[in-house]
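Cross-posting from the chemistry board since nobody answered there.

I work mostly on the small-molecule side, so proteins are not my area. We synthesized adenosine-5'-triphosphate and want a rough idea of how it might sit in this target. Sequence and SMILES are below. Is it possible to get a predicted 3D structure of the two together?
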Amino acid sequence: MSEVLLEMKGVSVKFGGLTALSDIDYSITSRSLACIIGPNGAGKSTFLNVLTGTLRPSIGSVAFRGRDIGGLALHRISRLGIARKFQIPSVFPSLSVAENMDVARWGAAREPDETDVLEMVGLSARRDVKAADLSHGEKQWLEIGMAIAASPKLLLLDEPTAGMTSQETQATAALLHRLKRHTAIIAVEHDISFVRALDTDTLVLHQGRLFRRGPFSEIEADEAVRDVYLGRR
Ligand SMILES: Nc1ncnc2c1ncn2[C@@H]1O[C@H](COP(=O)(O)OP(=O)(O)OP(=O)(O)O)[C@@H](O)[C@H]1O
Ligand SMILES: [Mg+2]
C-alpha cells in the first residue's frame, strides 16, 4: 500500500567549486520515518534545503507525489505538502498552547482536530498554558504540532531534540513514531541517543554523498560508518 512519496534522482548541489550534495538517489514512501546523520558539513541541511525549495539542485531531479519540484518556489512546495520545522522554536510566547494551535490552523487547507494534534504531541493537559511557560522540549513539541496543523505529507525536522533533556529526547522519538501514521517525516539529527531511540530507516551523508542507508541497527554496526562518523563522537 505504500507509494513513493519523494524521489530524488542524481541530485547534486554545487556552491561555486564546492559540491555540497553529490549525485543523490533517494526515495521514501508515504508515512515513513527517516533519519539523516553525518559529520559537520556532510550536506544534511543542504539536503533539506533542496526539499523545501530553498535551494535548487544544480543537477538532477526531485519528484514529490509524482511532480517535479526541482525548480518550484518555496510557497508552491509548501502548498504541495512539505513542511519544515527549524531548530529554534518560534511559537508565540504570550499565547496559550491552544491559541498557538489556532494560529497555525488559521488558513490551513484541511483543518485537523486540535485535540487530536495536541494529543499526538503530548500536550493535551497543557492546552491553557502560555507558551512562554512551557519547557524547551514542550515548545518544540508545540511547534511540531503547529507544523502538523497544515496536514503536510512530509515533515522535515532539523535537529528536533537540540537542547532537550534526555527524557524529552526519548519522548520525542516516541512522538515521531506516533506522527508517522499521519505524515512522512525526515529528521536530521546529531544526537545519537535519539537516533538509536528512533531506530528507523537511516541515511548517512558523508562529503555530500549518500554513504549508507539502512535500518539504524545495521548503520550502527557498520565499520565504515564508524570510521567516518559514529566512532569519532
Ligand atoms: N549557501 C552556501 N554557500 C556556500 N557553501 C555552502 C552553503 N551552504 C552550505 N555550504 C557548504 O556546503 C557543505 C554542506 O553544508 P551543510 O550545511 O549542508 O552541512 P551539514 O551536514 O548540515 O553540516 P552541520 O552538521 O554542520 O549542520 C559545507 O561544506 C558548507 O560549508
Ligand atoms: Mg546543518
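Reply from a structural biologist on the board:
Welcome over. Reading the output above for you: The mean pLDDT is 92. Residues 1-73+156-161+186-233 form a domain with the Rossmann fold fold (CATH 3.40.50.300). Happy to explain the C-alpha cell format if needed.
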